[in-house]
């Protein structure tokens, strides 16, 4: 559902669905982070990534890290 709203550009609705979830698993975080990252909102994606790092329920995985790296690249924030 999060992914569907995000694909329609309804980020507020996607975020509402996410926030209404009793247990925000890693897959839900990834869907929301990816939605922001893929649609030109890298700052929002990285903000969510930082929130996820402090979550007691979910932890970042490989998918999360790819999305975060892509968001950094969009911002030119990678120092290679």
From TrEMBL:
One of its GO terms (molecular function) is RNA binding. Keywords: Repeat. This is Pentatricopeptide repeat-containing protein. It comes from the Eukaryota. The keyword Repeat applies. Pfam families: PPR, PPR_2. Coiled coil: none annotated. GO terms for biological process: RNA modification. PPR repeats lie at residues 25-59. The keyword Disulfide bond does not apply.
